[in-house]
Specification:
By secondary structure, this protein is α/β, with parallel strands linked by helices. Helices cover 28% and strands 14% of the residues. It has 3 domains: 1-39, no CATH class; 41-250 and 266-486 and 588-592, Alkaline Phosphatase, subunit A (3-Layer(aba) Sandwich); 492-563, Arylsulfatase, C-terminal domain (2-Layer Sandwich). The protein is built from 16 helices and 18 strands. The longest helix has 34 residues, at 300-333. Bound molecules: calcium ion.
Length: 605
């Protein structure tokens, strides 16, 4: 198949041409320029795992992120960008462009419910019906590199090398230690890593996730530099996902700064967001969740101990920013920076749930809500080190998601609404500007294919491909549209049974009690971005219209609401209901993956 080769500049011209010709159809477009491959831009996706909407300085945080902010200064910040509510569902959509219920991540592998087992779209890995972004970019002449967390399958035919990445250094699991191969469950206690398509016996010397991923990526780019091919790099950082693992010299940079409590920090962040133009004037904070204490009632020592968790989290984000800075420096020194497009975002809302309570405790009970507040019985001075597994809890997750309601795992805005920065050649909007068009992670595939001068085929290697879920940002990036979608086009989400649909400024959501009402709630996000006031009773017409869109989404994508969910019994009264489904949740029972012997190697130096 002959590849279409377009420069990014030519592509921008092509947009202009399309617009002109639609106004003046008599004039045929000039032939598109070809054979200027060297000028196609490099593409770098920087993903922060569980990084919150309000965690970067350029989105209102007090956390210092000068390198990420420098990309915001050079590019555009998007304030209405959506992902899915957790890791692998978002990543599957990013890399396939296809809705999660079709691409294999209809549910997280760890929580796939009995009624979803064996159903197409619920494989728990990125399935073979889709073609991946790196595969198509590789076919179009790009180098394709990946470092960091994969979370889309561990078998030889499912790993990054099998899905289009020419070079990789990857953690195949969804989380794990930042220092070694320790993982969390009794049945699968060891993380699995690959390097260039082989499974690793051990990790390199001096391994620390964020640092090593950056070192590896720089070595990949350096090795491929000079052959004239552009590169695509998927920098899938583990940070700042829990556990909060941080090198010793990064652990004590914010001592005491968060003792003032979560309410104060949220208010300060919202104030800065309004000053920056991230949120409109008059925006109100989502209410503090009912099970989180008012910091005023806490003893100073308690505030200091809980504040320490946020000190560590802030350190994680700053350390991530530091290593992003190393990558940017390298690209500037080699002259690659000016021809590189960057996309920066978090993969879902910040993490308020206690992962370890979900694993070691009694899943499906309400105790994990409270567990995260008191979690980790080790001495706080040891937190951050390799032997300690600490998250920061729902109070700080709400801070990370200022001004929104709730956090990761839920489809309130706090679970799915993320910060997005796009910078680099082809972004024709004023440097440092802000856009509030409604964007979705599924848009990235068609956008980047266009930038690379290629497109999404109807078939691939003889198989018919599912339709893309998203729409290209081409017209938005060159300033000719404010949003890739019209007021009529809708977005929808479902995870763990929670579900929602958004059309224009209206959002209809259904959440398990007591995070939601266990029935449809309606919000006007333009007036009420923090989902404070349910308008369902006042606007039955809107509820009905949005319910019809939800039904459309279910039908088009084969959504099956789960029979079991990690959040299902939160509102139970005593005695606890403990449904018995052998093997659920898979998270606890899934056995240690053992790679084929002939694919196991020692790490490269
Ligand atoms: Ca995540």
């Amino acid at each position: 198949m002959k590849q279409i080769k377009l420069t990014w500049k030519a592509l921008a011209m092509l947009f202009a041409v399309v617009i002109v010709t639609s106004a003046n159809a008599a004039e045929p477009p000039p032939p598109a320029p070809v054979n200027n491959e060297a000028k196609r831009p490099n593409i770098v996706i920087i993903l922060g795992d569980d990084l919150g909407f309000a965690d970067m300085g350029s989105f209102g945080s007090e956390i210092k992120t000068p390198h990420l902010d420098s990309l915001a200064k050079d590019g555009v910040r998007f304030t209405n960008f959506y992902t899915n509510a957790s890791c692998s569902p978002t990543r599957s959509v990013l890399l396939s462009g296809v809705d999660m219920h079709q691409n294999g991540l209809g549910n997280m592998d760890e929580f796939t419910a009995p009624n979803q087992w064996g159903v197409d779209g619920y494989e728990g890995v990125l399935n073979n019906r889709v073609v991946t972004l790196p595969q198509l970019l590789k076919d179009a002449g790009y180098h394709t590199y990946m470092v960091g967390k994969w979370h889309l399958g561990k078998k030889p035919e499912q790993i990054p090398a099998a899905r289009g990445f020419e070079r990789d250094f990857s953690l195949l699991d969804g989380a794990g230690s930042y220092w070694d191969m320790t993982n969390f469950t009794a049945a699968a206690p060891k993380s699995v890593f690959t390097e260039d398509g082989k499974y690793l016996t051990r990790l390199p010397d001096d391994y620390y996730a964020t640092k090593t991923y950056t070192d590896k990526l720089i070595s990949f780019i350096e090795a491929g530099r000079g052959d004239g091919k552009p590169f695509f790099a998927y920098v899938s950082h583990q940070a700042p996902h829990d556990p909060l693992h941080l090198p010793q010299d990064w652990r004590n940079r914010h001592v005491g700064e968060y003792d003032r409590g979560w309410d104060a920090v949220r208010q300060e962040r919202l104030q800065r967001q309004i000053e920056l133009g991230i949120m409109p004037a008059g925006t109100k904070l989502a209410e503090r969740m009912w099970f989180i204490p008012d910091p005023i009632v806490l003893a100073p020592a308690t505030k200091a101990i809980l504040g320490k968790k946020m000190e560590l989290y802030a350190g994680m984000v700053e350390n991530l920013d530091f290593h992003v800075g190393r990558l940017i420096d390298y690209l500037k020194k080699t002259g690659l920076y000016d021809n590189t497009i960057f996309l920066v975002f978090g993969d879902n809302g910040a993490e308020g749930t206690d992962l370890f309570k979900m694993i070691a405790g009694t899943p499906g009970t309400r105790d994990f809500l409270f567990g995260a507040i008191n979690w980790s019985q080790t001495h706080p001075n040891a937190w951050g080190g390799p032997e300690n597994y600490v998250g920061y809890g729902p109070m700080w997750a709400q801070v990370s998601m200022t001004p929104f309601s709730q956090y990761k795992g839920w489809v309130a805005e706090g679970g799915i609404h993320n910060a997005l920065i796009v910078s680099g050649p082809g972004v024709k909007r004023p440097k440092g500007s802000i856009n509030s068009g409604i964007m979705h992670v599924a848009d990235i595939m068609p956008t980047l294919l266009e930038i690379a001068g290629t497109g999404y085929p109807k078939t691939y290697q003889g198989r018919e491909l599912p339709a893309l879920f998203g729409k290209s940002w081409g017209p938005v990036l060159i300033g000719q549209a404010e949003s890739p979608r019209t007021e009529q086009e809708y977005l929808a989400w479902e995870l763990f049974g929670n579900h929602a649909v958004r059309q224009g400024e209206w959002k209809l959501r259904w959440l398990y009690k007591p995070f939601g009402k266990g029935e449809w709630e309606l919000f006007n996000l333009a007036a009420d971005p923090a989902e404070r006031k349910d308008l369902a009773a006042e606007r039955p017409d809107k509820v009905k219209a949005l319910m019809a869109l939800w039904d459309d989404y279910v039908q088009k994508n084969g959504v099956i609401l789960p029979s079991r969910s990690p959040f299902e019994t939160l509102d139970d009264v005593l005695p606890k209901r403990v449904p018995d489904d052998p093997g659920y949740p898979p998270l606890i029972y899934k056995k240690q993956f053992v790679p084929p012997k002939d694919m196991v190697v020692d790490p490269k130096p």
